[in-house]
Design goal:
This protein is mostly beta strands and 316 residues long. It has one helix spanning 292-295, and strands at 2-6, 9-13, 30-35, 41-45, 51-54, 60-64, 72-77, 83-87, 92-96, 102-106, 125-128, 135-139, 145-149, 155-159, 161-162, 168-169, 172-177, 183-187, 192-196, 202-206, 211-217, 225-230, 246-250, 256-260, 275-280, 286-290, 309-314. It has a single domain, classed as Neuraminidase. The strands form seven sheets. A five-stranded antiparallel sheet has the order 1-2-27-26-25, with no helix packed on it. A four-stranded antiparallel sheet has the order 3-4-5-6, with no helix packed on it. The protein has a four-stranded antiparallel sheet with strand order 7-8-9-10, with no helix packed on it. The longest helix has 4 residues, at 292-295.
Length: 316
């Protein structure tokens, strides 16, 4: 067990894979994680069962999604407790009940032409507006676009293009919406967060980031924003510090409240591989899903499946 952070942002972690899964199961890698209003933890993964639902002690409550997904990527809990899953292998966004019954599907099957701006080509994540249940899709790997739908799945508007200027994206990877309707985008390879109004008009950006892959927001009147960041150095500088991978806690203006993790990638407690998904429960505990197999384990000699799911227990 090690401590990360300081003061009221102090966390403990074991550095071990979180979740009490049977020995004959595997995550392969956990790609995304979400927590519902009852603190049930949904781990979307590429292993034995694509969706595993836990309590906060890591005990399994449910599994579903077998045979439904090609390449699990992102999971989001809607304001009605629905579960939204993004599959970047078959280019779909799907809405499920919390028991895994499919309720709605956007697109699917064939990708839109790369960088066409049309939905979808390898989408990454979805956010649901808490004010009106509109659906926002981060269409990020082979597009540079955000698509806004009404609750029935009717496309309302899209914005964004490839580039580094304000309002442009270099992998629009993750997305959240606050109670005021502001849209926060993890613009991963541009190493920043961009903030827009509900119609896609640029407001501001947060710099001094590593490669921001994951973003979520806590609860309360003035919630914190939690970021999962990849390593942004190069392999010849993999012993460099404060380059990620890490978790950052920010306020909604982009001011840093805590940085969790100073060392580069690795197995040791207090380190990360590739924080690809992030969620927070009602006690302030942080859950981090890492695509450690794709980014690291598959290239090890011999290949192995590193830890891909961590819980950071808030102590401060």
């Amino acid at each position: 067990m090690v401590e990360l952070g300081s003061g009221s942002y102090t966390y403990e972690t074991t550095g071990e894979n979180w979740g009490n899964i049977p020995e004959d199961w595997t995550y392969k890698e956990a790609t995304s994680v979400a927590v519902d209003e009852n603190d049930k933890v949904y781990v979307f993964n590429r292993g034995t069962h694509p969706m595993i639902v836990f309590n906060t002690d890591g005990d399994i409550l449910d599994t579903w999604g077998d045979g439904e997904f090609t390449n699990p990527h992102g999971v989001t809990i809607g304001p009605d407790d629905s579960v939204w899953c993004v599959d970047n292998g078959d280019h779909t966004v799907k809405k499920f009940s919390k028991k895994g019954e499919k309720l709605l599907q956007l697109q699917g099957g064939e990708p839109a032409p790369a960088m066409s701006g049309d939905p979808f080509n390898a989408p990454c994540q979805v956010a649901i507006d808490p004010n009106n249940s509109n659906i926002f899709v981060a269409d990020g790997y082979s597009n540079a676009r955000v698509h806004k739908y009404d609750p029935t799945g009717r496309l309302l508007t899209s914005w964004g293009e490839s580039g580094t200027d304000s309002g442009q994206f270099n992998i629009v990877h993750n997305i959240i919406i606050d109670k005021e309707g502001l849209v926060y985008i993890a613009d991963r390879e541009n190493q920043r967060v961009q903030v827009f109004d509900n119609d896609g008009n640029f407001i501001s950006q947060w710099n001094d980031m590593s490669r921001v892959a994951a973003i979520t927001m806590g609860s309360g009147d003035d919630p914190d924003v939690y970021l999962g960041e990849y390593f942004c150095g190069i392999r010849s500088n993999e012993t460099g510090t404060n380059l990620g991978p890490r978790v950052s806690v920010m306020d909604r203006k982009g001011n840093v409240r805590a940085r969790l993790g100073t060392q580069s990638f690795g197995d040791e407690p207090g380190r990360f591989y590739s924080p690809h998904g992030i969620a927070v429960d009602s006690k302030g505990n942080i859950y981090v899903a890492e695509v450690s197999w794709s980014d690291y384990g598959s290239q090890m000699d011999p290949p192995r499946e590193p830890r891909s799911m961590q819980q950071l227990v808030r102590k401060g």
